[in-house]
Amino acid sequence: MKFLIDNQLPAALARWLTAKGHDAVHVLDIGQGQTEDRELWSRALAEGRIVVSKDEDFFVLATRPDDLGRLLWLRLGNCRKQELLERLDSVWLQIEAAFESGQTLVEVK
């Protein structure tokens, strides 16, 4: 799977996903840190990437009728990087299975 990590999440998340065998880039690593959400969403769609974000604006984009984008929506509140990675690690197999089965929106609380 391919992922685009949003600005408010740590770059370590992209490295964590890469270590799991995925293609993951953080917006800061590709010079897109100040890019509008709609433009990031379009880029992710064009590149076949799943957006990973805490931003509710992406939820709005992901739930538009006929939208083909995919979102991993992290609703964990403010937490340390290690807490974030541990939570994702605990549910990662379910996240992968959800996207592989065709789900376009996966929420993690």
Question: How do the strands and helices of this protein lay out in sequence?
Answer:
Elements: E1 2-5, H1 11-19, E2 23-26, H2 37-47, E3 50-53, H3 56-62, E4 70-74, H4 81-100, E5 105-108
SS strand fraction: 15-25%
Instruction: Give me the number of helical elements.
Output: 4
Which stretches of 5+ consecutive residues score pLDDT under 50? Answer: none
Note the main sheet.
5 strands, parallel
Separation, N- and C-terminal Cα atoms:
21 Å
Topology order in helix (H) and strand (E) letters: EHEHEHEHE
What is the total domain count? 1
Your description of this structure?
The protein has 109 residues and is α/β, with parallel strands linked by helices. The protein has one domain. 43% of the residues lie in helices and 19% in strands. The chain has four helices and five strands, in the order βαβαβαβαβ. The chain has helices at residues 11-19, 37-47, 56-62, 81-100, and strands at 2-5, 23-26, 50-53, 70-74, 105-108. It has a five-stranded parallel β-sheet, with helices on both faces. α3 links the parallel β3 (50-53) and β4 (70-74). The longest helix is centred in the C-terminal third of the chain and has 20 residues, at 81-100.
